[in-house]
Design a protein that fits this description.
- It is a single chain.
- Helix content is about 40%, strand content about 10%.
- By secondary structure, the chain is α+β, with helices and mostly antiparallel strands.
- Helix 8 runs parallel beside helix 10 and helix 10 crosses helix 11.
- About 55% of the residues are buried.
- It catalyses: Endohydrolysis of (1->4)-beta-D-glucosidic linkages in cellulose, lichenin and cereal beta-D-glucans.
C-alpha cells in the first residue's frame, strides 16, 4: 500500500477511479465488465444517420455522448499512462487503464467515417435533461450530430486528433496495427480541423449550452499538433506549433485553468517538455515562450505567482462553484508531470522560478499530494469526494443510472416521468454506488450538500477523473508520500528557498501589451476614500492583437468599459482588435488600493 501523510491508499483510489469509467460505458458491455449493475445501452445510436455510433462514454450523470469532453477524457487518460504506466502496472491496473482508453478510441474510429466528417454528439442535452431514466431504458432522442467542411468544428476535430495521437503511443508496443490506425485517423482529423476552421458549437448548436467552446479552437489546433509531434517526431508538427504560437494563442495565453475547454496550459507543458528534452531544434526561442506560460500556470497554482489561484479555508484550489474539482484534478496532473520533467530532464535547473520564490519539485509534488488528499477526505468535512472511497462519501450522486434500481435487479421499464417522480426525489442514498467517481465538490468555504438535485456539487464527470489516474499512479508508485526522492532535511522544508546562484535566469520576452493604471479622481464618502482608476491597455507590437482577455482581481467596486467573459474580461464587441499602437481604456471605482490587472490571453495576427 502506498500511503500519504493522511494514510491514503493511492493504489486503491487508482483502482476505483478506473472502475468508474466502466459505469460510464455506452454500447454492448464486454464479458469482463466489472460494474455489474450496468447493462447494454444505446444499441441503435447512429442508426437514424446511417452510421454505427454504438459505444463510447456518457459524459457525466446524463445519457448524452458529447464528443469534446469525451475526447479530452481519452487524451488525459492516455497521457497518464504514457507518464506513469509503469506505476499503473505495479498496481495491477495498466490493463484496465488501457481498456478504458480503447473503449473511447474504438468509438472515435466509428465516429470518423470519412476524412472530413466527425460525429460529435449523440442525443441532445435539452431532451435528455427533461428525462430521468436509466441508460438501458432510454426513450429520448438519439439523433447524431456531425461536423464537416460545410459545418466545421476545429476544436472538436483537434481534440479528437489529440486523443487518437496520444492513444496511439499507448498501444504502440502492444498493438502496433491499432496504433497505426489511430495515428492515421489523427492525422486526417488534424488536417480537417486546420483546413476548415470554425467553432464546433456553431455547427452542433445543441452542444452550446452544455459544452460551449469558450476558448475557441486555437488551443485545440496547437494541442493536436503537439500530440502529433510527440507521436510521430515529424518536424512539420513542431513547425506548426512554433509558427502558429502567436496567431493561435499558444505564446499569448497565460491562464491558470486547464480543462475540457481550454487546453493552453497543456500545450505549454508539452512544448516545455520538448524544449527540456532537446527536441526543439530551430524553434527553441518560440518554445521558450510556451515554457514561460507553463511556468506561469505552475507558479499560480502553488501560490508563488504574480496571480495565484484562490484557495478555500481547507486548502483546495478554487475556481468556481459548479464542478470545481475538475480544475483541481487537471491542475494536479500538469503540476505532477512538470515537477517530474524539472527533475529528470536536462536544462530545467531542477525547479521553477516564480515571482514569489523558487518552486522546487518536492514543493510542487507536496502541494499536489495536499490536493489529492483533500479529495480523498483530508478536508474540513472529512468527506471523500471520490465515491466509494473511505466510509464517508456522497451517497446521492446526481447520476441517472446510479440513482435508479439496476435493470438487472428490476428490469421493469422506468419512464422519463417515473424516474423524476419516483427516483430523483428519494431522500435515501443511490441504490448503485458509482465507485471511483469524482463529484463536483465543495464550494469556496469547503461546504458541500449531498443532495441529488445539487448537480453543481454532486454530479461526477469523466473529465474529473481522467487526469487523476496519472497522479494517483505517481503517488501509488512512490513508497510512502511519493516525494522521497525530492525531500530535503526536515529543517529545510519550511524555509524559503534561496534564489539560485551562478545561473543566468531565462527571461520571458517583453509583453507586447502594456497596462498602465492612473488615479483620475478621488473623493471621500463617510470617511472612506474612493478612487476612480483609469486603465490604458496598449498594443506595443507590430501586429494586430485579437481575442484579448484581461484578468482583474481585488476588484471591490464597479467597472466600466469591459465585458465579463468565461476567462476574465474582454473588450466590448465594437472593439474586436487592437492594431499596432492602438489602446483601449476602461475605468473602475473602489476604495483604497488599485485592483490587479493583467493579460490572460491574446492572439497576434
Amino acid at each position: 500500500m502506498a500511503s500519504g501523510a493522511g494514510g491514503h491508499d493511492y493504489a486503491l483510489a487508482l483502482k476505483k477511479s478506473i472502475l468508474y469509467f466502466e459505469a460510464q460505458r455506452s454500447g454492448v458491455l464486454p464479458p469482463n465488465q466489472r460494474v455489474t449493475w450496468r447493462e447494454n445501452s444505446g444499441l441503435f445510436d447512429g442508426k437514424a444517420n446511417g452510421v454505427d455510433l454504438v459505444g463510447g462514454y456518457y459524459d457525466a450523470g446524463d445519457n448524452v455522448k458529447f464528443g469534446l469532453p469525451m475526447a479530452f477524457t481519452v487524451t488525459m487518460m492516455s497521457w497518464g499512462i504514457l507518464e506513469y504506466g509503469k506505476q499503473m502496472a505495479a498496481a495491477g491496473e495498466l490493463r484496465n487503464a488501457m481498456d478504458a482508453v480503447k473503449w473511447g478510441t474504438d468509438y472515435f474510429i466509428k465516429a470518423h467515417p470519412e476524412p472530413d466528417v466527425l460525429y460529435g454528439e449523440v442525443g441532445d442535452g435539452d431532451t435528455d435533461h427533461n428525462c430521468w431514466q436509466r441508460p438501458e431504458d432510454m426513450s429520448t432522442s438519439r439523433q447524431a450530430f456531425r461536423i464537416d467542411p460545410q459545418n466545421p468544428g476545429s476544436d472538436l476535430a483537434g481534440e479528437t486528433a489529440a486523443a487518437m495521437a496520444a492513444a496511439s503511443l499507448v498501444f504502440r508496443s502492444t498493438y502496433p496495427g491499432y496504433a497505426n490506425l489511430l495515428l492515421e485517423h489523427s492525422k486526417q482529423l488534424f488536417a480537417f480541423a486546420d483546413k476548415y476552421r470554425g467553432k464546433y458549437d456553431a455547427s452542433i448548436t445543441v452542444a452550446r449550452n452544455y459544452y460551449g467552446s469558450f476558448s475557441g479552437y486555437g488551443d485545440e489546433l496547437l494541442w493536436a499538433a503537439a500530440w502529433l509531434y510527440e507521436a510521430t517526431e515529424e518536424g512539420c508538427y513542431l513547425e506548426y506549433l512554433a509558427r502558429n504560437g502567436d496567431a493561435l494563442g499558444g505564446t499569448g495565453w497565460s491562464i491558470n485553468q486547464f480543462g475540457w475547454d481550454v487546453k493552453y496550459p497543456g500545450v505549454q507543458v508539452l512544448a516545455a517538455k520538448f524544449l527540456l528534452q532537446g527536441r526543439a531544434g530551430a524553434h527553441a526561442a518560440t518554445l521558450q515562450r510556451y515554457r514561460q506560460n507553463a511556468e506561469f500556470f505552475v507558479c499560480s497554482c502553488v501560490g508563488k505567482g504574480a496571480v495565484n489561484v484562490p484557495r478555500t479555508p481547507g486548502g483546495m484550489m478554487y475556481h468556481q462553484r459548479w464542478n470545481n474539482l475538475q480544475f483541481v484534478t487537471s491542475a494536479s496532473f500538469l503540476l505532477t508531470v512538470y515537477a517530474d520533467y524539472a527533475t529528470r530532464l536536462p536544462g530545467s535547473g531542477g525547479g521553477v522560478r516564480c515571482p514569489g520564490g523558487a518552486a522546487r519539485p518536492y514543493e510542487i509534488l507536496a502541494f499536489v499530494r495536499s490536493q489529492v488528499n483533500y479529495i480523498l477526505g483530508d478536508n474540513p468535512r472529512g468527506t471523500s469526494y471520490m465515491v466509494g472511497y473511505s466510509g464517508s462519501f456522497p451517497r446521492q450522486v446526481h447520476h441517472r443510472g446510479a440513482s435508479i434500481v439496476s435493470v438487472r435487479r428490476d428490469p421493469s421499464f422506468v419512464s422519463c416521468q417515473e424516474g423524476y417522480s419516483s427516483w430523483y426525489p428519494r431522500q435515501a442514498g443511490n441504490p448503485n454506488v458509482l465507485e471511483g467517481a469524482i463529484v463536483g465538490g465543495p464550494d469556496e468555504y469547503d461546504d458541500f450538500a449531498d443532495e441529488r438535485n445539487n448537480y453543481e456539487q454532486t454530479e461526477a464527470a469523466t473529465y474529473n477523473s481522467a487526469p487523476l489516474l496519472g497522479v494517483l499512479a505517481r503517488l501509488a508508485g512512490s513508497c510512502g508520500t511519493g516525494l522521497e526522492e525530492y525531500q530535503l532535511p526536515p529543517a529545510a522544508v519550511n524555509q524559503t528557498s534561496p534564489p539560485p546562484h551562478r545561473r543566468r535566469p531565462h527571461h520571458a520576452p517583453p509583453s507586447p501589451i502594456e497596462i498602465k493604471q492612473n488615479v483620475t479622481r478621488t473623493w471621500v464618502v463617510r470617511r472612506a476614500t474612493y478612487n476612480r482608476y483609469s486603465v490604458t491597455v496598449t498594443n506595443r507590437s507590430r501586429k494586430t492583437v485579437r481575442e484579448l482577455h484581461l484578468g482583474v482581481s481585488e476588484l471591490r467596486g464597479r467597472l466600466w468599459g469591459l465585458d465579463k467573459a468565461r476567462y476574465g474580461y474582454v473588450p466590448p464587441k465594437w472593439l474586436p482588435a487592437l492594431r499596432a499602437g492602438e489602446s483601449l481604456r476602461f475605468v473602475y471605482v473602489q476604495p483604497g488600493t488599485p485592483a490587479n490587472v493583467w493579460v490572460t490571453g491574446y492572439k497576434l495576427v
